[in-house]
Design goal:
3 domains, about 350 residues, elongated
């Protein structure tokens, strides 16, 4: 006769609900209790059925994760962090990319509902207001990753982009740069505005002016957008001596564009990125960037949504939980003091 969860509970001297929580790594139990119950289950030969568990608990043990683009290395690291925690708790992941397409967003929301995901981690900065509201109306617990619309969510975790941007700008100022430009992503909304805000704040604190033409925007955050933007920078009557890019992918495109035009980085112009994706350490020159704790953000988002699900079950969910994390500047080879003849300008 097959061993049941009640058999394990009787052997362990606990309730069957405690056994269920232990086998799914609930944060409501101590590590010692979880390990003891798991060991008893193994010794007794108990193997829970995912299908039966779903019927009994009305849980799918699946998390939905929505990102802007699957091929963006920034999101891949966040997904790794989510998966590490989710897998340890016996949860699978349903991943979808919005691609900034309204029709695709609607299809994703419907699919998440039909698959009865227990919770949702939303990493798509451009997800429309309409679809965000639909998700909330469906009663699916949501954790927001980034600060694109944090005020519309009760549970969120995001990076302090204003602080990160100030770190980048301060580094360039301390190197002696006075003519510094910012290259933003017009499709990224609040994220690029926060990074621009930090840039402006640090420049103002240093008493440095920002000509209007030094604030550039391109319709995207990929390397091709950065490559195209390099022409705008080179065509300026008074070129900046340093360029702060919205993200590493834009900066990588800029590096290629400047190199193709015969300009030296950082000899003629310093370039800084943001995010510290894996490729930034392998560019030529290696890219100075602001490191976001991407895998940690993903792991914390998973812990937050799983802890929330545990507490909802026990009617102990907090009214709100918001985490704001800070990154750190990584100085590499793409930044240096401005050319000697421009340092006094």
């Amino acid at each position: 006769m097959a061993i049941t969860i009640k058999d394990v509970a009787k052997q362990a001297g606990v309730s069957h609900s405690t056994v269920s929580r232990a086998l799914h790594g609930s944060s409501l139990l101590s590590e010692e209790t979880v390990e003891r119950i798991r060991q008893i289950a193994v010794e007794m030969g108990y193997f829970p059925s995912a299908a039966a568990r779903s019927l009994k608990t009305n849980r799918s043990h699946a998390l939905g994760v929505i990102v802007s683009a699957i091929d963006d290395p920034f999101f891949s690291e966040i997904l790794q962090g989510i998966e590490e925690i989710a897998q340890g708790r016996g949860y699978s992941m349903l991943i979808a990319a919005s691609q900034r397409d309204p029709e695709r967003e609607r299809a994703i929301v419907q699919d998440m509902r039909e698959r009865h995901v227990d919770g949702l981690i939303l990493c798509s900065a451009s997800f429309s207001v309409e679809q965000r509201r639909n998700l909330l109306q469906y009663g699916i617990p949501i954790v927001m990753v980034n600060n694109q619309a944090a005020e519309e969510y009760r549970y969120s975790i995001y990076h302090d982009d204003v602080d990160g941007s100030r770190q980048v700008t301060r580094h360039l100022i301390e190197l002696g740069h006075k003519r510094i430009a910012y290259l933003g992503n017009s499709l990224s909304g609040r994220t690029t505005m926060d990074r621009l805000t930090g840039f402006r704040q640090e420049m103002e604190a240093a008493g440095l002016d920002i000509p209007d033409e030094y604030i550039l925007e391109v319709p995207g955050g990929g390397p091709e957008d950065g490559f195209n933007a390099s022409n705008q920078i080179l065509d300026m009557p008074e070129r900046p001596t340093a360029l702060f890019c919205f993200n590493d992918l834009l900066a990588i495109g800029v590096l290629k564009g400047l190199h193709s035009a015969g300009f030296s980085v950082p000899g003629d112009i310093s370039v800084v990125g943001f995010d510290n994706i894996v490729f930034s350490a392998y560019t030529n020159p290696t890219l100075t960037t602001l490191e976001q704790p991407k895998r940690y953000i993903g792991a914390e988002a998973a812990r937050l949504i799983l802890g929330l699900l545990d507490r909802i079950e026990d009617k102990e969910a907090p009214d709100q939980e918001i985490q704001k994390l800070k990154g750190r500047l990584l100085v590499r080879q793409s930044t240096a003091p401005p050319p000697i003849d421009l340092r006094q300008l």
